[in-house]
Amino acid sequence: MEYNTTRTRLLMPEYGRNVQKMAEYMLTITDRERRLKNAEAIIELMATLTPHLKTIEDYKHKLWDHLQQMTGFTLDVDAPFPPPTAEMVFKKPERLPYPQEAIKHRHFGKNLQELLDKAVIEPNDEKRQWLTQIIGYYMKLSYANWHKEPVHDDMIKNELAEITGGKLQYETGGYRVHVERPTFKPRNNNRNFKNGGNNNNRNFRDRDNSGGGYGNNFNKNRKFSKNKNK
């Protein structure tokens, strides 16, 4: 009976112990052509054991890389793909820079400070108030998520005024949508009134002539039944 303490370490555990043994036996084959055929057979077996890899583009290249890793990067065969090295596989990614900044209002997050900086320098009064209302609504959501309880609009108004030094004043009752108002050119009201009056008279006259009102056509076309007693 074999114990795990006496066995070799599995370099690719997802393929199992049997595939590991086949790879170890393949390394003992001295004939290069025969060793290549055994490697191709192991690749086919690995593809059968991991069918999800077939959805990846050029999955055969990935399987050959796994076989190289399974043999400790010592496999010497004429593979269809260039063999990887241990430095390429186990290369650590570069460390991502993390902004070490002190957040003034942690329960609101860093995004709130960026919104405040943008709203304070906004030259348009209407748009600045629109940004202020959105910031107040965002503060209400953040406060509810942090404290797990609702918050009143007056509290948000006072805290926003304190944070910005009175530069932004939140209006209770929600936030408004900022809409760019188009500019209209003045029209000639006298001409429109004159044409409108003619059109109204014409429409009224046409309605009478078509029988829509109590005009002459309506009385002329209407038939009255005669009284048989007279």
- Tell me the structural class: mainly alpha
User: How many separate helices?
Assistant: 9
Helical content class: 40-55%
- Report the mean per-residue pLDDT as an integer: 77
Show unreliable segments.
175-179, 212-221
What radius of gyration results from the CA coordinates?
42 Å
**SSE ordering:** HHHHHHHHH
Number of strands: 0
Describe this protein's structure.
There is one protein chain. The longest helix is centred in the middle third of the chain and has 23 residues, at 125-147. Helix 5 runs antiparallel to helix 6 (125-147). Residues 175-179 and 212-221 have low confidence and may be disordered. It contains 9 helices and no strands. Among the domains are: 13-89, no CATH class; 101-182, no CATH class. It is an all-alpha fold and 230 residues long.
How do the helices and strands line up, and which of them pair or pack?
Elements: H1 16-27, H2 32-49, H3 59-70, H4 86-89, H5 110-120, H6 125-147, H7 153-163, H8 189-209, H9 216-221
Helix pairs in contact: 1-2, 2-3, 5-6
Summarize the entry for a quick read:
About 50% of the residues lie in helices and about 0% in strands.
